[in-house]
Design a protein that fits this description.
two-stranded antiparallel sheet, single chain, 18 helices, Arc Repressor Mutant, subunit A, 64% helix
Length: 477
């Protein structure tokens, strides 16, 4: 029953046994099923906790660096303060507060988490103006802020199955652009909004109905750019927008629920006192990161839904077996990659290879990466992450492919008593050494080459244990 249900839910897009709203509902069931499963596979709760930990230590340096941009332009320092307050409101940090009783029971002083952050940032920025803070301290703040962004990118790459991060200089350029251009654009938006508000344009007519949903639009736009730009992968804009919209709705609802909790249920004050600001702030940051990672996982599942279905079916067919690909499977893979490269003049993605050959995606990735290591394939990063032949197909013999497979195989050290097997192997190699990779393409040009004396192997295997992570698909980039 479970197998039949999975096969039904894995029908190719456009071939579902439904139409209209039924097809849309069917698509959503498939999408959310994969999303929830991948959240567990990628340990999103653990990643959200790690991001919360780094955010606690990086939020002050991040605020300082963003305000330092406006410090360079004295006429716009007030705008920097507005940007800071706007972010506080959107992140709901301004609502985390505690009332401290004075000497008289009737006196009470409100201590806000944002006030504590402001005191630290203002003291640091004042030190920059007076020279009390050295250049080294400023550079350390920048380094801490960049470190937070690097941690975020690493977590995003984990969800997208990207094995390597951007280069050091690429990361520095991207992060510095985000830390400088982002606040300036946000400040420009706040300035224009304030200008129009003063003229009454947003308080009259149909424009006034947009004001209540402005926070949702802002959070959705911020999440979209985060999902689209931060992963070291090629992200589809429509998938990123869908993930951002859903995450924006969830975050808006979470902010409302958190506000109700702060107003009506405040047991943290009785237990922790003023120290309750710390666990409450960390808890809210953790909830925020959970929602952000959920939206990112939804983006990934939307973009690779077809491949996720194919990988699940392949894993189901090989449920309790060791998945083995012999040299002929690798030859088919190399031949198809060569054909696609000649046809489209573009690299192929690991998802395309897996879908074409019916392989689990993580296993296809291991095969492809091994062929890159043996100099048969080349891994590209621009214009997208993919694989293409390392050289012309007329220069790659089938024997070279067999030798590459052998390097990743278990080979028994046979004695002289297995000379017949050695003879069979040598004869097989001689046959493969006389054929080029282009012999396997549709054009099938017959080109002969001298044989070589190298031996070959036959298997490149992947255990069931390693296949259990096949859901963490690597993206094209």
């Amino acid at each position: 029953m479970n197998t039949l249900l999975i096969r039904l839910l894995s029908q190719p897009i456009g071939k579902e046994p439904f139409s209209g709203w039924g097809r849309f509902l069917f698509f959503q069931i498939r999408l959310w099923r994969h999303c929830i499963r991948l959240l567990k596979v990628n340990r999103s709760g653990t990643q959200a906790a790690a991001l919360s930990y780094h955010t606690v230590f990086g939020i002050v340096p991040l605020a300082i660096v963003m305000l330092m941009v406006f410090q360079l332009f004295p006429a716009y320092r007030d705008l920097g303060i507005k940007v800071r307050e706007f972010i506080y409101r959107q992140a709901h940090l301004a609502s985390i507060e505690y009332s401290v009783r004075g000497p008289a029971e009737t006196e009470a002083k409100t201590v806000r988490l944002t006030d504590q952050i402001d005191q630290i940032t203002d003291r640091f920025l004042s030190g920059l103006d007076t020279g009390a803070v050295t250049l080294i301290s400023g550079l350390l703040m920048i380094w801490a802020a960049i470190g937070l962004l690097e941690t975020i990118e690493r977590a995003f790459n984990t969800i997208w199955g990207v094995a390597r991060n951007r280069s050091f200089f690429h990361r520095i350029i991207n992060y510095w652009t985000m830390l400088t251009l982002g606040p300036l654009l946000l400040g420009l938006g706040i300035y224009m909004t304030t200008h129009y508000l003063s003229g009454g344009m947003l308080t009259e007519g149909w424009m006034k109905y947009l004001r209540p949903i402005w926070p949702f639009f802002f959070s959705t736009a911020a999440l979209f750019f985060l999902y689209f730009l931060m992963p070291n992968a090629s992200v589809n804009a429509k998938a990123a927008l869908w993930g951002a919209v859903v995450a924006g709705l969830c975050w808006t609802a979470a902010k409302h629920a958190f506000g109700v909790y702060l107003l009506r249920f405040i047991p943290y004050q009785a237990v922790y006192g003023v120290l309750g600001l710390i666990p409450l702030g960390v808890w809210w940051i953790y909830i925020t990161w959970l929602i952000v990672l959920f939206g990112l996982q939804l983006t990934y599942a939307t973009q690779y839904l077809t491949t996720l279905d194919a990988a699940e079916l392949a894993a189901m067919r090989k449920n309790d077996e060791a998945f083995i690909a012999d040299e002929y499977t690798v030859m088919r893979m190399m031949g198809w990659i060569l054909e696609e490269y000649y046809r489209r003049q573009a690299p192929v993605t690991v998802e395309g290879v897996a879908g074409r050959l019916g392989l689990p995606v993580d296993f296809a990735r291991k095969l492809l990466d091994h062929l890159v290591a043996t100099n048969l394939l080349f891994l590209t990063t621009e214009p997208g992450r993919g694989y293409c032949p390392a050289t012309d197909g007329r220069k790659i013999t089938l024997e070279e492919i067999a030798k590459a497979v052998r390097k990743a195989s278990f080979v028994s050290l046979a004695g002289d008593d297995e000379s017949k097997i050695a003879e069979l192997r040598d004869a097989h190699l001689k046959e493969l050494g006389s054929m080029w990779l282009t012999d396997l393409t549709k054009e099938n040009p017959v080109v002969k080459s001298p044989t070589s004396d190298s031996s070959s192997g036959s298997q490149f295997s992947n255990s069931t244990e390693s296949r259990s992570n096949s859901d963490n698909l690597p993206p094209s980039m």
